[in-house]
Amino acid sequence: MKVIIGMSGGVDSSVSAYLLKQQGYEVEALFMKNWDDSDNNDKCTWEEDVQDALGVCEKLKIPINTIDLTEDYWNKVFGIMLEDFKAGLTPNPDILCNQEIKFRVFMEHALEFGAEKIATGHYARTNAVDLGFELKKGLDDNKDQSYFLCRLNQQQLSRSIFPIGDMHKNEVRKTARKLGFSIHDKKDSTGICFIGERPFKEFLSNYISIDPGLIKSVSGEVMGEHDGVYFYTIGQRKGLGIGGIKGSSNAPWYIANKDIFSNTLYVAQGEDNEYLYSERLYANNLHWITPGVPKSPLRCYAKTRYRQSDQACLVSWTEDDIITVDFDSSQKAITPGQYVVFYEQDRCLGSGVITTASSL
């Protein structure tokens, strides 16, 4: 079977390519260029990454090609992300990138190159069942990336292989070291998908205008000014410029709410402030990965951000796919625009896009 792997120049995709060869697949590689930083500063490392990918493929004797998907990335991910920020939301471009670029546009190119399946270096697993495929967590709890794959569909899963889903990160690095890969200790990519880690407000201000407004306490007291509600997110503490020392009587302030219409940030003092917590959220754009749609209401687990542990909840939805999620315990800083992702043990069931949160 011919498999084309998305090579990023990192250790995860490199070891994945090696494992595919060991398993007897006919392996080729594609490197995706998704961001053009020629008009900006020199922080995007795609040129270095492509050289690293070429080096690994030469060592493994795997053919590699490069495809330019910058226009697709702008239209299907980055432009949508900007519109969400302008609407006062906090989007997750990594999830959208997986849905629209890595497992749609990239997959289409791979199939045109004659691939029967694609592979990536995600820490996740698939499982074939009677009616289709399940998406399961990676075995490494600290690296599990099923959260970022929560918008994949059955067709995408049926064509996908995750070779390192059964491995831990330290095993992956150890394997890369044994193989003599120079990238065995290369730092993991962080920040916005394919753009990298940059000063967030500074980067976003290249595309969204500074729009100063007031910072108010939840009781209405003016606390200071901000540069535009688009640049801030629920639960944020740093960068507000209104004081507060952690562990002192002058407790830090956190963003509790954003009012896009009046361009006002509302803040609450103390990390345990009741205004930061909610027991219920509402979401839309419901998407089920599982073969067949579960019945409402559904007792399961959910997380509203990547690093969060699974939280017990009851999920209900209507025919127009408006979701209500009631948590067994209060959740901190539920953020509109982010994804609520549903789990049953190690199986990722699906997701929705958070619209609002409230107390019961």
Summarize it.
By secondary structure, the protein is α/β, with parallel strands linked by helices. It contains seven helices and 17 strands. It folds into three domains: 2-178, Rossmann fold, CATH 3.40.50; 209-271, Roll (SH3 type barrels), CATH 2.30.30; 275-358, Elongation Factor Tu (Ef-tu), domain 3.
Layout of strands and helices, then pairs:
Layout: E1 2-6, H1 11-22, E2 26-33, H2 46-60, E3 64-68, H3 70-86, H4 93-112, E4 117-119, E5 124-129, E6 132-137, H5 154-158, E7 160-161, H6 169-178, H7 200-204, E8 213-217, E9 222-226, E10 253-259, E11 264-269, E12 277-288, E13 298-303, E14 311-317, E15 323-332, E16 339-344, E17 347-358
Parallel strand pairs: 1-2, 1-4, 2-3, 4-7, 8-11
Antiparallel strand pairs: 5-6, 6-17, 8-9, 10-11, 12-15, 12-17, 13-14, 13-16, 14-15, 16-17
Structural class: alpha/beta
The stretches of 5 or more residues where confidence is low (pLDDT under 50) are none
Number of domains: 3
Q: What oligomeric state is this?
A: single chain
Number of strands: 17
Through-space gap between termini: 53 Å
Query: Can you summarize the main beta sheet?
Result: 6 strands, antiparallel, barrel
The CATH superfamily of the largest domain bears the name: HUPs
Q: What's the shape?
A: globular
Count of runs of 4 or more consecutive helical residues = 7
Average pLDDT, rounded to a whole number, is: 91
The CATH architecture category of the largest domain equals 3-Layer(aba) Sandwich
Strand content: 25-35%
| Helix amount | 10-25%
* Helix/strand order: EHEHEHHEEEHEHHEEEEEEEEEE
- CATH topology annotation of the largest domain: Rossmann fold
> CATH first level of the largest domain: which class?
Alpha Beta
- Rg calc: 22 Å
Give the strand order of the largest sheet, numbering strands 1, 2, ... along the chain: 12-15-14-13-16-17
